[in-house]
Amino acid sequence: MFLGKVLGSVWATHKESGMENLKLMIVQPMNFKGQAQGSTVIAADRIGAGIGENVIVSRGNPARMLFDNRSVPIDAIVVGIVDAYELSDEVVLCHESSGEGGEPNE
Amino acid sequence: MFLGKVLGSVWATHKESGMENLKLMIVQPMNFKGQAQGSTVIAADRIGAGIGENVIVSRGNPARMLFDNRSVPIDAIVVGIVDAYELSDEVVLCHESSGEGGEPNE
Amino acid sequence: MFLGKVLGSVWATHKESGMENLKLMIVQPMNFKGQAQGSTVIAADRIGAGIGENVIVSRGNPARMLFDNRSVPIDAIVVGIVDAYELSDEVVLCHESSGEGGEPNE
Amino acid sequence: MFLGKVLGSVWATHKESGMENLKLMIVQPMNFKGQAQGSTVIAADRIGAGIGENVIVSRGNPARMLFDNRSVPIDAIVVGIVDAYELSDEVVLCHESSGEGGEPNE
Amino acid sequence: MFLGKVLGSVWATHKESGMENLKLMIVQPMNFKGQAQGSTVIAADRIGAGIGENVIVSRGNPARMLFDNRSVPIDAIVVGIVDAYELSDEVVLCHESSGEGGEPNE
């Protein structure tokens, strides 16, 4: 999985079967110093991640296995909203009071 | 999944089994600022994406699962045609009137 | 999938089970301007791709699914020999008369 | 698989189904000269890897298969804690007496 | 698959289930000119590849399928020891008399 920051969302009315009613978020992979690393990813989200929140994203076949209908053709999904992380004996809290616009390491 | 722009299509008469009657599109991965990022991909398309349109592409095993015959050996498929996306509180519309030649962020 | 050019072949007599009687080709990923991009790949080939030909290569789990014996441990396979592609309203033919030594965009 | 060094851990209370009771570690991929290479990964850990330890991480679908409930949506897992490795006829021991803070090639 | 050169091996006594009795080799991906390309990989080996030998490595889910117990959480395996390869009408032999220390293109 990788750490990412939710930047926005994507709309598509013309879709493949299995993509109905899926919320699609734009996620920027981040390192644990609050810096962007690598290309943005479009990930499905079923747990209500908000813009600006730090999330854990899982990629590939495992993303698809959450659906009883295994034909959902997604390859990335938000699997957790990060509360905090510990790095080099320092604990970093991720939630801002508003849940929006928070920087990963503030 | 990643955001991509359809650049063209590929023809192959000599193919592996399971590849019959599949439309294969050339897709350039894009960031959400309208810039190309990374290498072009050949993706199957069953939803009629046109040249110049912004699409969502899914990769790996999930692409294959859309087919009842699970032996279709594709590793990328267009899963949606992007209407619009919201990034940093700005909504970006993706469709041009013609559906061709539109830039991703105009 | 990606566009590639067949550069050669590989021989191995000491192999894992499931690799018997598989032709293994050296394939250089290409962009659609005839330039190499990224690292060479070793792909299985069952459709008779020749040296110098442009091919479509599929990677990962889907490659394996073509075999009734699902234990074939390959992660890349040639799924098509490219006849032509259309890019920016220009059609590019890929076959040379000899089928060998052709440049991708001639 | 790749060699990695455990840097810390991540907490998330709001998670996808299947992610309950999973310890999530921050792992930095390393080369065998003790240098970081590439982006940090979030990997599940069931074998008790400690901060500073060298571990082997497996990615993709295989990570998920360790769970009887195949719907666990993880794409990376710690599969071993490295005791030592041999490279160019030199044996490198990885454990420090404390198990924490050890450099990969000391 | 990719061409790699076996550089060494890794020992881990504390492992996930399914990793018992697996030989784990350090493999450096190579191009076909004898140069290293990209990061080292830890691959399982059941066919007895020796240090310095050129091997073919398969990654991802296919690696796992060789085991009757599908829960073996590996994502890379040596699937062949390279005898020779043909590139641009030149045949390159890979075995040295000793099987150790041979350069890929000698």
- The end-to-end span of chain A amounts to 22 Å
| Total tally of structural domains of chain A | 1
Order of helices and strands of chain A: EEEEEHEEE
Q: Give the oligomeric state.
A: homopentamer
What is the CATH class of chain A? Mainly Beta
Mean pLDDT of chain A equals 87
Largest inter-chain interface? Answer: A-B, 32 and 33 residues
Low-confidence stretches of chain A: 97-106
Major sheet summary line of chain A: 5 strands, antiparallel
Strand arrangement within the widest β-sheet of chain A reads: 4-3-1-5-6
CATH fourth-tier homologous superfamily of chain A = EutN/Ccml
Give the second-level CATH assignment, the architecture of chain A: Beta Barrel
User: What's the shape of chain A?
Assistant: elongated
Overall helicity of chain A: under 10%
Number of helices of chain A: 1
Main structural class of chain A: mainly beta
Estimated share of beta-strand residues of chain A: 35-45%
The CATH topology assignment of chain A is OB fold (Dihydrolipoamide Acetyltransferase, E2P)
As a whole number of angstroms, the C-alpha radius of gyration of chain A is: 14 Å
